[in-house]
Amino acid sequence: MFFREKRAGLCLLCLAMAAVIAATVPPANAASSETPRSGYDVVYRPEVRAGMNFESAKKDFEDSLQHLRLYPDICPPLSLYVDKTTAYDDRVEIGWTNHCGGPQKTGVFVLPYYKISHSTIIAEYRKEGHGSIRHEINFPDLVNLQFDNLASARKAADALLFIQNEEKKADEERNAQLARFEPIAVQYRALKVKPAMSEEQRKFVVQANAFNQGKNYDKAIEKYLKAVDSNPTSYPAAYFNLALLYAQQKHPRRAIFYMKHYLLLEPDAKDARSARDKIYEWEALLEGK
Length: 289
Prior knowledge:
Blueprint: H1 2-24, E1 40-44, H2 54-64, E2 67-70, E3 80-87, E4 91-97, E5 106-112, E6 123-126, E7 135-139, E8 143-147, H3 150-190, H4 199-213, H5 217-230, H6 237-248, H7 252-265, H8 272-287
């Protein structure tokens, strides 16, 4: 009986300690529910921090990343050293240098935000193996981001969660814009005489075509956007061209968005079949298939 009472007292003490420990564990966000990889512990689940905005999130990520591995691994014995990280509105570009013992190589890895929009973001700690770089945020078959300490990993994880949420919001807004555009397209299709381009719109289209031929795709996109802003239905081909340009710039979500505009206006166009097929291709990119 004495033995049982002592065990019971110890269990009560253990439960009290467990409650204190549990209270210090960061709450999991909805996107971070997966179990850790074998040989790793989850040490942090990101949170949406008060006061963070898109610019501060990009800056936090730029400042915290120190190393990475790519899939497939191009430097198995060692991580790649990060020379410079630059976060844009739609992607992160990470300049790296290898230290594999052979001829030194450099490169740039591009991480588009759409690639992480539905990924699990957690900071893990590698329990075994060589080296002191053990804190990681892993995106399977894409990239393994590595940090010198937990503080840097936490900072990057919070930034990535914010960016991920913003990417989801942008996707929801695109869907809402398409819904608002649908009745406009219905009215356009019902017209026996379609609206003609204004001289200003024609100017934007001519300029966009010229920039496209010169492979200045950013300026071409800018001019086509001005063309559809001036009149959303008088030149449906602008949406088709915008879709191809955004695909060229590796923005499949925006490419799909504008191609759907084109098909709402011209569902029976000669190139409608190829336009729909392009959407299937870009959807496969988003799904990683």
